[in-house]
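B., you asked whether I could sanity-check this one before it goes into the benchmark set. Here's the sequence:
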Amino acid sequence: TIHLYGTPGQPRFDFMWEILTEGGIGLILLIDNSRGDPLAELRFYLNAFDKFIRETAVAIGVTHMDLQTQPGIDTYQAELDACGFGCVPVFEVDARKRRDVCLLVESVLSVLDPVACA
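And here's what the prediction gave me:
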């Protein structure tokens, strides 16, 4: 059984983040590509969850790429590499679509145990 918990991403709710990650096995970050500086948001969340990510796993879902095509997935991967998070799955997703959300969950699980998901 997997339980997914959503949390507001605004910094004013950061007090909840530690509570929600307690006992967690991974993190899915959704980054809105249509926002002003989505790479800055990615860096912010990587920094905020750095310890948790390094102890568990993370997958990145980039939303709203239909509204704003840049930065592209390759740019996100380069940013992750520059921040020291080399092998992190990054996907274009529509968070309203079950298949896209399942892909993110499966990618986190494959990072945790690549043999089990092969």
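One thing to flag: The chain has five helices and three strands. Otherwise nothing jumped out at me.
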